[in-house]
Amino acid sequence: MTGFLNSTAAARLRRFDLPILATLFLLLAWAISIQRATDFIIFCVFVLAYDLLYGHMGRLSFGHMLYLGTGAYAAALTAEHVSANPFVALLAALLAGGVVGLILSPITVRTTGACFALINLALNQVGYFLVLVALARWTGGEDGLAVTFSKVGPFDVGDKVMMFALALACLVGVVWLMRRLTDSPFGILLRSIKQNESRVRFLGYDVVRAKTLAFVLSTSLSAFAGGLSILNYAYVTPSFIDTGRNVEVIFASLIGGAGSVYGAVAGGVAYMLISNFLPNYVQRWEMFLGFALLLLIFKFRAGIWGSLVARFGPRRAEGT
Amino acid sequence: MGVALRGAGPILETRGATARFGAFTAVDGASYRLEEGETAGIIGPNGAGKSTFFNLITGLVLPAAGSIHLAGADVTRLPPHRRVKSGLVRTFQLVSVFDALPVLDNLTLAVIHADPSLASGPGFLLGSSRRGGLEEAGVAALDRVGLSAKANWLTSELSYGDKRKLEIGIALALRPRVLLLDEPFAGLSDHEIAEVLRLVKAIQGSLSMVIIEHKISHLLDMVSRLSVMHEGKIIAEGKPATVLEDPTVRRVYWGGGQGRGLVEARGTRKAEA
């Protein structure tokens, strides 16, 4: 199949990818609702963070809710005890994700495959327990915490339009960052590690260092997404760190097409559309998600974005 | 050969290097020296420990005993990537390239390793991997092995012979002082063998090289020194012609019924003479 987009046309389109992306989300907000679109956007940031490890470096994590939750609680606790400024809370979330990632990386980064997936799940379980029971005095346990954020100048996270604008700006920033990270030599390093980690060492690269960096970037950005959620909802509950919800980000990553920045966004939106609207028509909608996943695995291995690139993109497109 | 200037000592040396896997000793007290600029060969039947010997030298396997020295420095405990930094580069018996990447991207990391100024710090993380100097350096490295026309191919689309050339291209892009080639002719057609042979001869003398081969017919007119490995031990060493006449070598090969490679090689030599 040869696409109708040749590589120069594709390159020209890519130069305007950020405005195109922003426009599509504005249309989405108009089509569904602005609050839902904000939800979608924040979830997309999480999928992007997740896919850096899964799609690009080939590390499937079953416990990324831990890092999202870390950011969520860091933001909420900062707002409660330190400063009600939403940007301070957001920064605290990002940093907390980085610190937790850095602390856990010596355990996680040396493992691959099922081991990596399950170690993250185990750590996620520990985090869930800490939030629910051990640290309930601070986290509010099962009830969670309601937080209030102050206005910064005219900016108010309580205003749904302003919150949407902030989330969209963050998504555009993260997409830009991820595109740069994955188009760079570092991106090649991650994809090389995905294929043959041992071989990369014989190119003179310290694989553990590269994997640590990717892991910490992913945990930081996941936590950033968690922080954004708290700005949006103004409360935090253990559902933000619930191990059972890991499926969401894994599905989204697969649906969109792992290993592609635009694919992650497409997957995030597709998953949210399914989970938000399918329940209106079907009661046990999760079953259909399972069917959708089976279809993806057997028919569309490359996901939504991968299939689009194969159909319309230039031959040998790299699909970023 | 030995065209290059002789340094004070050998560029690569192992002293009693031993590799054990459980009760099995794969390499048994191998002591080996490679002089600067020399091209040397190691032969031996399958399972003789040749590849494990390379794994010991490059750090994939840590020795149970003995030591490894590179340009006089003890590298026995260094991880593989640090040995590459000191100029020790290898290829693999089964071609090892990155199939899912474009051909050019296979060179990027090697090219940056050889010249970090191409992508340092933030440039490595956030700069394009296809920007000016970096892409040119990659194409130049591909050109060296005759693959620049296929720079934008997906690596999995290359033939096995082209992948072998690509792997050698990656190795050369790392600017090695010592290059270890593990059966570079294995699995290639006669035509491809001739191409790789030409490639290897072109770089001879500009660096130090050890070539492992199962069939030695390709090695004879290339190496100045031949070592024979058998059951983890280096049992003979010297000029190729002398080694082939060595009674121990002949006994091991003919006695063990594994003499096919040697017979073939002797045939070639007789034909040449």
List keywords for this structure.
heterodimer, A: 320 residues, 2 strands, 1% strand, B: 273 residues, alpha/beta, six-stranded mixed beta sheet, 10 helices, 10 strands, 36% helix
Query: What is the H/E order of chain B?
Result: EEEHEEHEHHHHEHEEEHHH
What is the CA-atom radius of gyration of chain B, in angstroms?
19 Å
**In angstroms, what separates the terminal alpha carbons of chain B?**
20 Å
Largest interface: A-B, 27 and 37 residues
Largest sheet of chain B: 6 strands, mixed
How many beta-strand segments of chain B? 10
User: What's the total count of β strands of chain A?
Assistant: 2
Give structural notes.
The complex is a heterodimer of chains A (320) and B (273). Chain A has helices spanning 7-15, 17-31, 34-56, 65-81, 86-108, 113-134, 136-139, 160-183, 185-201, 207-233, 246-256, 261-281, 286-299, 303-312; strands at 145-146, 235-236. Chain A is mainly alpha-helical and 320 residues long. Chain A has a domain at 21-243. Chain A has a two-stranded antiparallel sheet. Chain A is globular. The mean pLDDT of chain A is 89. Helix content of chain B is 36%, strand content 22%. Chain B is built from ten helices and ten strands. In chain B, the strands form two sheets. A six-stranded mixed sheet of chain B has the order 6-7-8-3-9-10, sandwiched between helices. In chain B, strands 2-1-4-5 form a four-stranded antiparallel sheet, with helices on one face. In chain B, α3 crosses α5 (132-144), α5 crosses α6 and α6 runs parallel beside α7. The interface between A and B is medium-sized, with 27 and 37 residues.
